[in-house]
Amino acid sequence: MGSDNIKGSRALVRNLKFCRLWPHRSSVSSTSTSAPRSRLVELIKSFTLHFFVTFAFTAMMWIEAISSEDFEHCTDVLFITLTMTSLVAKIFNNWHHAKIARELLEEWSDSPQFEVRSGPERDMWEREQLHFSRVALLYSFCSLGVVPCIFVSAAYNYPNELPFLVWVPFDWQKPAKFWCLYAYQLFAVPFTCLSNLTSDLLNCYLMLYISLCLKMLGMRLAVLAPTEHRDSERQLRVQLLELIGLHRRVKAQAEKIQIFISKSTLIQILLSSIILCLSIYRMQMLNVFQAPSIFLAMAEYLFAMTMQIYLPSIYGNDVTHNADRLPTALYSCSWPDMSKPMRRLILCFMIYLNRPLVLRAGGFFEVGLPLFTKVQLSSCVRYRSIHIIYYRP
After folding, report:
1. Contact by Cβ (8 Å): 257, 207
2. Helix residue spans in 111-174 (DSSP H)
């Protein structure tokens, strides 16, 4: 192929390998007797890293939230704890289904069936890949940008404030123990943040690629037309059958992507409305002039959590939208100039294309823009309920 069709995923795969969330090549492709042992060793390494960094950190935050007797203190701990809990679900989902994502990326990169042609297709592809890269940078900046604000504020208030409130079985206000716990969080928080945002962006990229394949398919269907050539009818039939085969393969891949994103997206949806509600409540309690760094961190965090729901919603919506446009694209071709058997074949394919292509989260929610609206609305309702309960005159 002339260019890299999946260049938008290269950085994501490198980050996932660093976070031990991507299968080792030998664990996927090896068929020798040492393959099970290699997979077991890789799994032990990944589990050990996340046990001491992600799982232990999440457990300490849950203990702190459950043992807290003050509502505001519990709120400060809980909205980060829920975010970490959703990350734990994503980690196990990646370990279980990462092979699906790897096989899809390899097929998109190597299969001639998904080769992007020059001209409008290539321009469209490059434009959408560039747009995704910019969105990924914005999301990464907002997510990782929270970390310096929180850690600088905690270092300034030493030894009375930790970056993140967690339960520990010792007095962390002693200087040596404070800086040990501070160093642990200084490594754990950026690491878990990187794992979280990279997992989210991988889900979005898979949906983006499927939507681009559907858009590319629509562009090819719209330009189908007979020519003056003697074998025009046979060539046109071959082209249409190739496009039908491409559509069937894209639908099969969409089903695999749904398996990959279904559980993690469902858990993210269920927790995000609560997280957003608690974040709004916490920002209302802050004074921007007394704690500007904390207020800025909360604003960035709130924006990042909104993006965490908006991105899969918009890319999932693009999959459905581009699939719904395929019948119109096929109708736009020069079918009146074709023979009767070709028109009959086009009619049958058009009827088949009317079946909607929708990605679902856990089999319950359709991943699209209506889902984003529902999550935001439920967050506002929960926030209003908390405000009425705790601030009733």
Report:
1. yes
2. 120-144, 146-156
Cβ atoms of residues 172 and 229 within 8 Å: no
Side-chain-facing half-sphere of 174: CA atoms under 13 Å: 6
φ, ψ of residue 365 in degrees (nearest 5): -105, 135
5-40 pLDDT tens trace: 888 899 999 999 999 998 876 545 445 556 677 778
Integer Cα distance of 343 and 346 in angstroms: 5
Task: Please name the residues in contact with 294: beta carbons below 8 A apart, sequence gap of 6 or more.
Answer: 149, 150, 153, 286
Phi, psi of 119 (to 5 degrees): 95, -140
Cβ contact 81:62 at 8 Å: yes
Taking the model in full, what pTM does it have? 0.89
Q: Which helix (H) or strand (E) holds 366?
A: strand 365-366
Closest CA to 97 of 203, 220, 250: 203
- Give the pLDDT of residue 207: 95
Q: Which residues of 294-326 are buried (b: 16+ CB within 10 A; e: fewer)?
A: bbbbbbbbbbbbbbbbbbbbbbbbbbbbbbebb
Question: Nearest Cα to 22, choosing from 52, 51, 45, 2?
Answer: 45
